[in-house]
Amino acid sequence: MALLPPVPKPIGVFPQFIAQQPETIVLKEHVLSLTGDSFSIKLANGTPILQVEGKVMSISGRKKVCDMAGNHLFNIAKEHFHIHTTFAVEDPQGKKLMEVKSSFALLGSKATATFTSSQTGQEESLQMKGNWFDSAADITDNNQGGLVVARIDRKLLSGKDIFFGQQTYAVQIAPGVDMALIAAMCICMDEKNNEK
């Protein structure tokens, strides 16, 4: 599979997580987690980059995301009273950094993430489209004419990663794209699909 080319200008909210070269991150749900859904997010080489903790008995399915030094980066929570499933990605003080809204797609799934880029100060819009159940989807930049900035593909994984029924996703990320932001989008889609 060809590597994704660098994006023309950096895309993201967390400058420290902007990919410097083509990267693949792996999101692996812990099956026997006592804290709700917890994920560890690692680079393909096994280096951990983010830790995600689910909150037990939370109506909004709130998740807390930290870097490996334990710094609280953001929370992900389901927003209620929307026609389409909507998640908010908020900083530790509760300020909304990004909104991920799913929309109806005839085949597969579709979601749009909107946020203000920390790099340019511009409003950005990324769209995730694909067959999430086969775990293949493209994330494209609506501001760049549909340029693919990340690609979710379970085929990049070995059999043992898929065997135990854990939700494990490999996500290719283009240079210049925020890995934490893409991980947040993937967690939102996983949460939406777990509701079914």
Automatic annotation (TrEMBL):
InterPro entries, alphabetized: LOR (IPR007612), LOR_sf (IPR038595), Tubby-like_C (IPR025659)
UniProt organism field: Trematosphaeria pertusa
Similarity-based family: Belongs to the LOR family.
UniProt name for this protein: DUF567-domain-containing protein
Pfam entry (one): LOR
Domain of life: Eukaryota
